[in-house]
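Thread: Peptidase M14, structure

OP (GT): Posting the sequence first so everyone is looking at the same thing. Length is 483 residues per the record. Can we get the structure tokens written out before standup tomorrow? I want them in the notebook alongside the other entries.
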Amino acid sequence: MIKQLLLSAFALILLGNVQAQDELTSKLYETYDDYKESSIVKRRIKHTDIQPLIEKFKANPKFEVQKVGESIQGRDLHLISIGSGDSNIFLWSQMHGDEPTATQAIFDILNFLDAPEFKEEKEAILSNLKLHFLPMLNPDGAEVFTRRNALGIDINRDALRLQSPEGQTLKRIRDSLDADFGFNLHDQSKYYNAERTEKPATISYLATAYNYKKDINEVRANAMKVIVFMNRIIQNYAPGQVGRYSDDFEPRAFGDNIAKWGTSLILIESGGYPGDPEKQEIRKLNYVSILSALYTIANQSYKDIPVEDYEKIPKNDRMLFDLKIENVTYELLGNDYIIDLGIINHEVDLKGHNEFYYKSSVADQGDLSTYSAYKTFDAEGYTIVQPKVAKVDRIDDPMQLLKDGVAYVKTEKPEKSAFVHFPLILVEDTFKLRSFSMQPGANPTFFLKKDGKLTHAVINGFLIDLSKPLEQQSTGNGLINGK
């Protein structure tokens, strides 16, 4: 009887903690815009974009800012620290130069820590923990928006050989801090989904393994428990959109080795979110997720979480397209076939690596019933129609051309550009459309017909309803000479 009463009391305490933490994270989510760093709102951020922010915190007595290294090309790496607790927490971002979502979130978190609101919660965090942030570990890669550093190596595969100065810096800081928890912050492909669901893996977590057997010691178990807590929080804002990253051991990787060296390592991967190409909603989820994790670490409430719940988080899968056209009729050599098309909108960087355009391709075709997409169109009863080529002096009304079944246009083209902002393909006067066929790898540009009438165009992988104004639709971009 006494044991049952104690268990009931303990359950009420846990319930109270859960309710309090839910209230906190709800407030964090609702007030996010008050702390969002407005100077960096696109993914292609560079080292120069964050330097004024680092200088701002360097001048703030609440923070300790120190240069801790340089990249191969001589860009400074800074560590920003705050807090007076005995437990060191180390967070680093963008060791892959084209993975900037968490770098933005770090500056949102720093703004939050500097603000007067949430005094009680911040006191709980900063009196128990000392936080250390190393944003943009790979600034040379960020400069050209690529994964690897200037040496052409993946920093996250340099934990053993330590040939990159960026990797050397990361190892030195980890060792000097001997951090209890480490947050390894990345972006993953938006084509990952939560296993056996149609939903993207907007956020994926991993408590990295430290050996091939994937053993679970106390260090790894603590990471798992905090991840379970973060998953529960994110389910409130992106339900069903959390995945569990593969825990296959990689002996060269920093995350795996940092876990081996005694730091509870939490990998966070930012994936895709519908209608969020610049990942600003995912940035917000990083902010809420990380601050919530710091709070549960500070008050040690994570210790009561069953480690077994970690395995309940769905695994990552990769079964998503940007556009899926289902059950469409495709005529080939006089016969009709029913196929699905899975289309990917690839980003192509422009000079300077500040902007991009889309060049799409058919990723797969056939029976794609086990796949999902950000946008799905059931084309049962629709037939694929070959596009036409037309020559015009100028393009005044792209929609009229589309309604006439024209996708390729011979006309004057803008200089020094590979794309146009309207959904047509501009071609040379000598262009001839070769025999039309649907094949994986091809640029998806065609029309759909139903009951003898053209109803939709697919131009460079974007589906356009011919009955609606273009400005009311997401039409992507057209291409010049198919480049």
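GT: Both are above now. Quick notes for whoever picks this up: The first strand starts at residue 64 and ends at 70. The chain has two domains: 16-317, 320-481.
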